């Protein structure tokens, strides 16, 4: 079963959609400093199944970006494996790729890491940082297993600079393949609901996002060949809380009714909207719950996909939506939201923090508006994306300024800073010592005198204290 923590399995081939230009950069034959990509190539290979809906007619699989001279790095080739992952470029020092951006807006960035051993390099021992578009994407990253990292970045310039920096002077960075996809305009909205609060979260599209989970609820795995943006959707079995509900899964063989201003195939494919998990009328007192382990200290974009493939008529599906136990949407009427069309897709975006246990919990519960004979809850798909923190990082407290610093210069700088700090500390100790010695010297010369009488008569001391001119003993 696919690991839901890494929903994007490494595909053996790649492509692009009609609404996006897609670029794949695999390590070139010579040493490049920058890579400019292109997405014009031959038509795509045939789909694996005749029942699968055809991809858009302008779909073009990308070709490897042409190399430009000057990029530091070593090209390695593995003895076997998929063609996309048989090669890698190793970076013993900070290096960058540069991609031309034709249209400003949201872009998908996918980084393929497929460690192997070649020419004395064990890629599983690499430790490095990755940054792009002013954000830290990965910090002190290392992996022993094949992994695909997907990010969504807002790019408002004509170039995307992707940097790889070894974490230490003795380490190195590597990458097997890079994809840059111009995302459809409706892929990432700008406003999301904050559960249990009146205000909404604005500026979602300008955040850096990392895809953590992409789930096909109640259905099988959806491979990149069946997704116009070449995404992978995994089943929800490992994330669904079985004991919390007696739900059932549904599949729909009819046509998904995409609306002009609703969710498109680029938002989610037919195979996601044509399957669902539901709570029927016989289980009206139970919820459906999914639990997603995440990292604390970040906000998360939680996208829920809905498509009413269960109701026999309109306005027969009402339910409540909860995120981390907080009300996200009460008495949700899917018929009204989807334009009063059955089997019409719709999605809702929420922004929430992880709960105290480091989880994002999504719950679908029955509404009081439901009838006993109706479906009491439905969900077709879930996506969970990590949002950058306050210093622009998706991976810890390392800012982009820190991770892009040359580790050799960083080490020398740390050495100089340690010398300066040591000198400042010793100077401070010297000043404190001199002050203490001065105070001691002054206290040694201090004399405390007893009070003397002021009543003097006839040249003799009057009554009072006896004449005593000595130091007062304490």
TrEMBL record:
Gene Ontology terms, MF aspect: ATP binding; transmembrane receptor protein tyrosine kinase activity
Location in or out of the cell: Membrane
Membrane topology: Single-pass type I membrane protein
Superkingdom of source: Eukaryota
Chain spans, region Disordered: 1-79
Start-end of Low complexity biased regions: 1-41, 70-79
Primary location group: membrane
Annotated signal peptide: none
Keyword Nucleotide-binding applies: yes
Keywords of the record: ATP-binding, Glycoprotein, Membrane, Nucleotide-binding, Transferase, Transmembrane, Transmembrane helix
GO cellular-component term (any): membrane
Limits of the Malectin-like domain: 86-386
Pfam families documented for this protein: Malectin_like
Regions that span the bilayer: 415-436
UniProt entry tagged with the keyword Glycoprotein: yes
Compositional bias annotation for Pro residues: 42-69
PANTHER family: OS03G0124300 PROTEIN-RELATED, RECEPTOR-LIKE KINASE
Full protein name: Malectin-like domain-containing protein
Native organism: Ananas comosus var. bracteatus
Taxonomic lineage of the native organism: Eukaryota, Viridiplantae, Streptophyta, Embryophyta, Tracheophyta
């Amino acid at each position: 079963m696919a690991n839901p923590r890494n929903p994007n399995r490494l595909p053996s081939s790649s492509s692009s959609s009609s609404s996006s230009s897609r670029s794949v950069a695999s390590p070139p034959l010579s040493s490049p400093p920058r890579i400019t990509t292109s997405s014009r190539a031959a038509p795509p290979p045939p789909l694996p199944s005749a029942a699968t809906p055809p991809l858009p007619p302008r779909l073009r699989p990308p070709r490897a970006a042409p190399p430009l001279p000057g990029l530091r790095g070593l090209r390695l080739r593995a003895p076997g494996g998929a063609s996309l992952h048989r090669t890698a470029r190793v970076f013993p020092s900070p290096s960058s790729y540069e991609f031309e951006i034709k249209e400003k807006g949201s872009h998908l960035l996918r980084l393929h890491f497929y460690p192997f051993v070649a020419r004395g390099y064990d890629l599983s021992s690499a430790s490095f940082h990755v940054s792009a578009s002013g954000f830290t994407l990965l910090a002190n990253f290392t992996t022993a297993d094949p992994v695909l990292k997907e990010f969504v970045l807002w790019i408002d310039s004509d170039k995307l600079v992707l940097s790889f920096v070894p974490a230490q002077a003795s380490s190195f960075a590597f990458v097997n393949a890079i994809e840059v996809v111009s995302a459809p305009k409706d892929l990432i909205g700008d406003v999301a609901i904050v559960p249990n609060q009146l205000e909404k979260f604005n500026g979602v599209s300008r955040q850096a996002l990392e895809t953590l989970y992409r789930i096909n609820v109640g259905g099988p795995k959806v491979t990149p060949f069946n997704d116009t943006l070449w995404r992978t959707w995994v089943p929800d079995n490992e994330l669904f809380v079985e004991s919390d509900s007696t739900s059932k899964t549904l599949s729909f063989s009819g046509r998904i009714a995409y609306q002009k201003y609703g969710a498109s195939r680029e938002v989610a494919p037919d195979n996601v909207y044509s399957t669902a998990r539901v709570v029927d009328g016989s289980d009206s007192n139970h919820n459906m719950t999914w639990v997603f382990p995440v990292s604390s200290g970040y906000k998360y974009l939680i996208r829920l996909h809905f498509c009413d493939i269960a109701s026999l008529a309109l306005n027969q599906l009402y339910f409540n939506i909860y995120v981390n136990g907080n009300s996200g949407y009460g008495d949700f009427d899917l018929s009204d939201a989807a334009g009063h069309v059955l089997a019409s897709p719709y999605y809702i975006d929420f922004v929430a923090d992880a709960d105290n246990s480091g989880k994002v919990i999504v719950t679908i519960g029955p509404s009081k508006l439901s009838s006993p004979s109706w479906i009491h809850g439905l969900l077709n798909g879930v996506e969970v994306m990590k949002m950058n923190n306050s210093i622009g990082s998706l991976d810890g407290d390392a800012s982009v300024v820190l991770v892009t610093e040359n580790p050799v210069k960083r080490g020398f700088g740390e050495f100089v800073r340690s010398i300066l700090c040591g000198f400042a500390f010793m100077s401070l100790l010297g000043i404190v010592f001199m002050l203490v010695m001065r105070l001691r010297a002054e206290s040694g010369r201090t004399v405390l005198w007893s009070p003397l009488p002021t009543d003097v008569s006839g040249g003799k001391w009057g009554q009072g204290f006896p004449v005593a001119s000595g130091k007062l003993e304490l």
